Amino acid sequence: MNINKIISWGTFILIIGLIVVGMIASARKSAKANGFIEIMNTASTTDWITGNASSTITLTEYSDFQCPACAFYYPIVEKTLKERGDKIRFIYRNFPLPQHQNAMSAAQAAGAAGKQGKFWEMYSMIFGTHDKWENSTTTVDTFREYAVKLGLDIQKFDADYLSDDVKQKILNDEQQGSAAGINSTPTFYLNGKKTKMPENSVDFVKLIDEAISTKI
Questions:
Q1: Cβ contact 118:206 at 8 Å
Q2: Which residues contact 164 (CB under 8 A, 6 or more apart)?
């Protein structure tokens, strides 16, 4: 075999090899993307869920209670759920950012309230009074006051607030979000796919109605 044929065969084998490597990488990337879509679209037994729990339309939010943008979006999400809550299920997941010193405390308070079936009530109180506690150095006292107002067993609330179970749930949410590439809050996923940021509840409802129409 002459040198030209050897070079030709070598080039051909190299090209085939690169194509195979590219196909494998593409398949892995696709599988990873599909895996993230599945995670964002699937509720676990530990997720905080409201709306229509059996709906095939899932809106998932990764949020930081202290984040000003999350506080801005809170009433938008609430109005959206009021208008389309019977059509979708809403999953709230924690993603406390390191620059927000009270975000973890707020997430623990909501989680502790959730242990007594009052997650969403605490969620609303925390977001509804965002300006009161966001820069406070006594958030524990503030959230204990909220627990009392909600009629919670305060001793159980205190214990759950500090429990590994509540902290681990928050950490799991955070790790899941980080694995998906989330680096800011709020981040929304609709049926597992990251959405653009709607500026108001009207735009949010439009997105949901489009998702509903594709399922019909």
A1: no
A2: none
First to last CA, the chain: 63
- Residue 30 CB-half CA count within 13 A: 6
| Domains of the chain, residue spans | 1-41, 48-215
How much is the pTM?
Answer: 0.81
Residue in this structure with the two tokens 């995670």, named with its chain if needed: 39
- C-alpha triplet 39, 42, 43: angle, nearest 5°: 115
Name beta bridge partners: 106. none
Q: How far apart are CA 204 and CA 49, in angstroms?
A: 18
* C-alpha distances in Å from residue 80, one per residue of 56, 159, 209: 17, 34, 11
Contact 149, 155 (CB under 8 A): no
Write out pLDDT tens, residues 32-61. 444 445 556 677 888 999 999 999 999 999
Q: Look at residues 189, 190, 188, 196 and name the one whose alpha carbon lies nearest to residue 209.
A: 190
Q: Work out the number of other CB atoms within 10 angstroms of the CB of residue 210.
A: 10
Q: Which residues neighbour 15 within 8 Å (Cβ) at sequence distance 6 or greater?
A: none
Pick the CATH number of 48-215 from 3.40.50.1000, 1.20.1250.20, 3.40.30.10, 3.40.190.170: 3.40.30.10
